[in-house]
Amino acid sequence: MEYFNAFWVGGAFCLLAQILIDKTKLTPARILTGYVCLGVLLSAIGVFAPLKEYAGAGASVPLVGFGHLLAEGVKAAVEKDGLLGVITGGLAAASAGITASLLFAFLWSLIFKSKQK
Q1: Residue 43 in contact with residue 89, Cβ under 8 Å?
Q2: How far apart are CA 63 and CA 30, in angstroms?
Q3: Cα separation of 29 and 57, whole Å?
Q4: In the chain, what are the domain boundaries?
């Protein structure tokens, strides 16, 4: 049942994004940014933790999960470092994922000799 819940929740996020792309004049970049902000908002009001418990990777892998990660990092850093944590917390929490994505993108570009279009 865990796989099914992850599939339908993650699919619902993707379906909503596709509807927004098709039916509005929002650009994909604005929709992606909105999803990150939605993750922060859901985390702030306490809805994301139960959603993550229910859907697992279906909630934590999409960009909504990235927003939650940033919010939790800021919250922990503010408790530890005070107001400075507002600036450093999100970056510290997401640094491993960001570094990995940059490293893998660089290696991929070396292997496949990417070209501009």
Answers
A1: no
A2: 12
A3: 22
A4: 2-112
